[in-house]
Specification:
homodimer; alpha/beta; seven-stranded mixed beta sheet; 13 helices
């Protein structure tokens, strides 16, 4: 008696649940310390101490009904202003509170902006491999997902195919850099080319094509790599940010959208996104967390742990003969499976208590995602299993 | 370039925004203390001190990644179990954690359950006057809202019309008791009759009709009135609860859904609602607030303030000759306008710096909603304006 259109989700998710149950079963058989779960993007590094300190300070200082009460659906005005000023300082942009809508994480923000711009049948482009939830978010608003084939082995976006697949129905393009699942950071050169293509197509079709930049991993970049701020390259850019990874607050559901004043139909975009926040049932981003992150705008979790894990795992995997690019950002390793069947490889890995996500979940079979946002001693303990897996695949 | 279907919302909301701006304009002209805003359901009573104490205790006691990390999309298991046990104790129900899904407030919960059950064209019934956002929530999932005419002057649901409007396409009925905007509590007699009608219609059509009970005002009941717990009267009841009013935490977006085991298609309902939580972009209810409310299950804000306001305002309004029923719950007074034009009455009230919401916003013209969740000294100061309004309408 559930909706017919929900049935496919329930059937699909039983696979994920089965994997989760399998993990629990393995843990009960071999002990939790001998099961190596690399399947989740749940930060292992603690939030900066400032988060706790500021929450307590806020609770002791501000009136309770201010801390926990309703505010504008777009968020506390002083929080939005503080976020805007912080962005201006970091990226030499020119935002103010009108450009910022606080959201229930990046997932909430993406849903809000897609609700804002999509009519039934509108097309949204994403570059494989990409976060599988984008398919669901776009489907929520009756949009049509258009996937661009992976550009192997660089995993920079395939811009030729991109240009060929933009139509008069293209309403948005979603990019995610640093990327989940590949760890790739889109280069400035790539961004400049992409912006040029988008502008040409907008002119050709007389449309607005919004570039939605999903940026939960912005601060997780290594080796000094530059992560370009996209609003500076293309005026119809909308940024979706989350504090889930940068402050290790994924369960708190706190992030924001940036809608630049130069964007086409700016006032309607802001008004409609504010209304979408309300009518989709978010109402507003959690109030106390809004106030807390506004006090932690210059804080990030200690990413050296992820960086160390990255180097350790990369070295181990390549030494064992696995093929993977050294990721420049996020906390994922994207590994080519020895044969094309990523599901079989994931199953084989499980025999050695290693849990990965198959590339098929990211619209890119033949690869697996290994999330290295894990405890370092667990990572090291897992290496014996990686060795056995390599042997078994040889 | 926003979605065509969002345009009507933007146009509609400019009226609300105009009212909000008007309030600010009045405040700047006459001083904020001389503008009497009765338009918002934002609790004036502070949260119980236990909320603050438990948040600080949690921050000092639990590991940060447990406090702020991801958990099951349905919420922390121990929180769901604690909520279930608390309900069992209060209402002699028989729930466990499998029956509870933590949500981003009641608005989030309603969206989740509607996404779970509605296919395009499915009908949802509500009893006028009702919270206008229900229209938007149902439209989000391509459902069709069917309004039952108001039952004047009791504002108990009109059960004859209800029975006549149930069809084979009826997928859900939304009730809200204590009611926004009338303050009416549905009697046990009403609930029993309603359940009987629903069961007959389910048998007749061979369908499942879910009774969605939106209960943010459950604890706000006066004069010892009984608020029946609906799962005990009809097995296909789904409860949407929020801590927004009971703990004065509206900005924190924390609540839950109850899906009883007896409900038709129980397992699919729970699985699909958990998935809907994820794919709609909520992902999960804010983590720290989940942990906090689990420690405050026996707390409520001090409703005696609302009760005093209720009595003061009721006495004043009736003395002045206004027609209204004494509300038994929530924090709203539902007042008949001297002539049928509620918008004109709202405009007239504004001349005396009184801000109300017209009944039209609740699908019931000819009435206004006066929210008395306000500071008591403000309420008393406003009485002179009520007198002038009564005079002007005479």
């Amino acid at each position: 008696m559930i909706a017919k259109r929900m049935l496919k989700y329930v059937e699909g998710s039983s696979v994920t649940r089965a994997m989760f149950e399998e993990g629990k079963r393995l843990a009960s058989l071999y002990g939790a310390e001998n099961v190596f779960d690399f399947s989740l993007g749940n930060p292992s590094v603690e939030p900066p101490l400032a988060v706790k300190e500021h929450i307590i300070k806020i609770l002791n200082k501000l009136p309770p009904n201010k801390i926990h009460g309703y505010m504008n659906n777009a968020g506390h005005e002083e929080v939005r202003e503080a976020v805007a000023m912080s962005l201006n300082q970091k990226f030499e942009t020119n935002f103010d509170k009108m450009n910022i809508i606080m959201t229930v994480g990046a997932a909430g923000g993406l849903n809000v902006i897609l609700k804002t711009i999509l009519d039934a049948g509108d097309e949204v482009i994403a570059f494989a491999p990409y976060f599988g939830e984008y398919n669901n978010y776009v489907a929520n608003y009756d949009g049509i997902m258009v996937a661009i084939s992976p550009n192997i082995p660089s995993f920079q976006p395939n811009l030729e195919e991109f240009a060929s697949k933009i139509t008069e129905k293209t309403k948005a393009v979603i990019v995610n850099t640093p990327n989940n699942p590949t760890g790739v950071v889109y280069s400035e050169e790539t961004i400049i080319k992409m912006a040029k293509i988008l502008e040409e197509k907008q002119n050709k079709f007389g449309t607005a094509i919004y570039l939605i930049s999903d940026e939960p991993y912005r601060e997780l970049a290594y080796d000094g790599v530059k992560v370009p701020y996209l609003t500076k390259y293309y005026k119809n850019t909308i940024v979706g940010y989350s504090y889930s990874k940068s402050l290790s607050l994924p369960g708190e559901r706190i992030g924001y959208l940036v809608i630049p004043r130069e964007a086409d139909d700016f006032e309607n975009l802001v008004n409609a996104a504010t209304i979408a926040t309300r009518i989709l049932g978010f109402v507003n981003a959690p109030s106390l967390q809004q106030l807390a992150v506004a006090e932690c705008l210059n804080e990030t979790t200690d990413i050296t742990t992820y960086d160390t894990n990255r180097k350790l795992l990369y070295q181990k995997l390549t030494t064992l003969g696995f093929e993977c690019a050294k990721p420049e950002g996020a906390f994922y390793m994207w590994v080519k499976t020895p044969n094309q069947d990523d599901n079989a490889f994931v199953a084989k890995a499980k025999e050695f208590n290693l849990l990965f996500v198959p590339g098929s979940a990211f619209m890119c079979p033949g690869y697996v995602r290994i999330a290295y946002c894990v405890d370092q001693t667990m990572l090291k303990r897992s290496f014996a299993s990686f060795e056995k897996l390599a042997e078994a695949m040889a």
